[in-house]
Design brief:
alpha/beta, 50% helix, 10 helices, 212 residues, four-stranded parallel sheet
């Protein structure tokens, strides 16, 4: 099966490709990257109709190449992804966080949400079900370190910020690119850590094989 992976950060492809190698190596992958999406959202401060239309264009392009499923790795664009899903139905379209949220809610009700991109902490909370106590946490400087190629600093800053989440039941890492810091975050918090790539691949695989 051909899966389109759509990214707004250039750091997202490696962790999701690693998850596919582990959980669904038979899938054929294509990557669509537009790193101006995250930059423009940071500049504008909110999702706009123009941004939604850009996502719809990416979705139509992916389907036009023969993609039988689409997985978005950009967690700050939930409403835009919903618009794509409506456009290309019945092609399965998965938000990056759906499966991880389900997994985290299954562990506990007080969930720490760690992110390196501020937009994620604005757009992602509405995706959680009622009754969840969400504790948002930004890791300042971590994304800039990743952009500069300093992977060790990214991981260290993520772990340092996560210490504020030690009283949570579980920590959910809000970016695909944060998955690389999972072990350090678990060590810093002493809490279970849920990453998005693996859970997303498992859910998409199950949905697409069931529909085949």
């Amino acid at each position: 099966m051909r899966i389109a992976l759509v990214h707004a950060l250039r750091h997202s492809p490696p962790p999701i490709e690693a998850a596919f190698r582990e959980f669904w190596p038979e899938a054929t992958l294509m990557n669509l990257l537009d790193d101006s999406l995250s930059a423009d959202l940071a500049r504008d401060g909110a999702l706009t109709p123009a941004m939604t239309e850009r996502f719809r264009t990416l979705g139509r392009y992916a389907v036009g190449t023969g993609a039988q499923g689409i997985l978005f790795s950009c967690s700050a664009f939930g409403p835009c992804i919903e618009a794509v899903a409506a456009d290309v139905a019945p092609v399965p379209v998965l938000k990056p966080n759906e499966a991880a949220i389900e997994e985290a809610v299954g562990i506990g009700r007080r969930i720490g949400l760690l992110a390196t991109f501020a937009g994620t902490l604005a757009s992602m909370p509405p995706e959680f079900p009622p009754g969840v106590e969400l504790v948002p946490c930004l890791a300042p400087g971590a994304l800039a370190a990743l952009d500069a190629g300093d992977l060790a600093a990214h991981d260290r800053l993520a772990a340092e910020a996560s210490r504020a989440l030690r009283d949570c039941d579980v920590v959910l890492l809000g970016q695909f690119s944060l998955a690389r810091a999972a072990d350090l975050v678990a060590e810093a918090t002493g809490r279970p850590v849920v990453t998005t790539p693996g859970s997303a691949v498992r859910k998409l695989r199950q949905a697409m094989l069931a529909a085949a």
